[in-house]
Amino acid sequence: MTWDLLITQFKHYLKLERALAENSIEAYVCDIRKLQQFAEQGETAILPSDITQENITDFIQLISELGMSAFSQARIISGIKAFYKYLLFEGDIKIDPTQLIEAPRLGRKLPDTLDLHEIDKLLQAIDHSKPEGARNRAILETLYSCGLRVSELISLRISNLYTEAGYIRVIGKGDKERLVPIGKEAIKYIDIYQNESRVQINIKPGNEDFLFLNRRGAMLSRVMIFTIIKNLARVAGINKNISPHTFRHSFATHLIEGGADLRAVQEMLGHESITTTEIYTHLDRAYLQQIIQDFHPRS
After folding, report:
1. Number of domains in the chain
2. Is 230 designated active site?
C-alpha cells in the first residue's frame, strides 16, 4: 500500500477511534510525511511496509544533523511509532521497525511561573477605563482560577458557565469535556464583564454563546490572548517570558505547593497521564520534605 493511502487511513483512525482534535491529527501527519519524504528521496522509493529499523535510524540521524532539537526529534519519533503501531494492529505489516527505536532523552524544562505578587501586578496593569478593561480582567482571572489552555478559554461558552454551583464546563483536547471549579473573584469579574461591557457589543451571528468577544463581536483568537498578556506584562514591568500558559502553570504550581492532591490537579488540568501533570509542578525540596514528614509512616 502507498504512503498516501495508509496515512489517510491513519488519519481516520485518529479522528474516529482516538477522537483527537484536528490540530493533533495534522501534527501526526506532518511528522509521518517527513519520513515519507526521506523514504522517497532515493532512486527507489521505499514503501511504508518495507521500511526497516536501519531506515528509521538513518532518518533520525539525518534530522539530528539538520539541527532539529531533541524535543522535535522526540515528537517526530513518537508520531512515527504511533503510525507503525497502527499498521501492525491492522495487519499491514508483520514487524514494527520502530519497536527498538528510542527517542532522545529530554530534560524537563519548566516554563516561567508567576508568584502572587506578580499576578497582582498584572491585574493592576489593566486599564479599566477602556472598553476592553473589564473583559481583560475577567480573562486573566479565569485563566488563573481554572488553569485553562488558551484554546479552552477562547471557546468558553456562556451556556457552559455554572457559576451558582462554582463550576464551568470546559471542552479540552480531543473534544473531551471536564468540569472545573471556578473561584469567586473570577465569577465576580465575569459578571461585571457580561453585565457592563459585553451587553454593549454588537455580536456577530454565530458568536452569541461565546463568552469572550472582541470589539467586532466575534470570538477572540489565540494570538489576541497572547497579545493582551504580553502588553500587560510590559506595563507591569515583568520581564519573564509570559504567555497564557504561564497562568496554567502558575495555577498548578500554587495548588501543589499549597498541598493539593496531584490527581485532583490532573483532573482539573485535563491531563490523561499523571506524569504530564508532574511536569507542571516544580516543587521545592522543603515542600517535598514536609510531605514525607507529614504522611510517611516511618517519619
Report:
1. 2
2. no
Across 183-288, where does the E strand assignment appear? none
**Quick one: pLDDT at residue 63?**
83
Tell me which of 75, 135, 137, 245 is the catalytic residue: 245
Using DSSP's 3-state secondary structure scheme, residue 243 falls into coil
Same domain, yes or no, for 271 and 150? yes
Which pLDDT score, from 0 to 100, does residue 228 have?
94
Burial group, residue 119, by CB count within 10 angstroms (0-12, 13-18, 19+): buried
Q: How far apart are CA 25 and CA 183, in angstroms?
A: 34
Q: Which CATH number does the domain housing residue 45 bear?
A: 1.10.150.130
Asked whether residue 74 is domain-assigned, the answer is yes
Last residue of a domain, one of 48, 74, 90: 90
280 catalytic, yes or no? yes
Among residues 135, 137, 149, 249, the one annotated as catalytic is 149
Q: What is the pTM of this model?
A: 0.60
Write the single-letter amino acid at 193: Y
Has 287 been annotated as catalytic? Answer: no
* Active site annotation includes 216: no
Average pLDDT of the segment spanning 100-126: 80
Q: Does the annotation count 271 as an active-site position?
A: yes
Q: What is the pLDDT of residue 283?
A: 46
Q: Which of 75, 198, 248, 254 is catalytic?
A: 248
When pLDDT is cut at 50, 70 and 90, the band that residue 191 belongs to is very high
In the residue annotation, 245 being an active-site residue is answered as yes
Selected catalytic residue, list 33, 34, 157, 173:
173
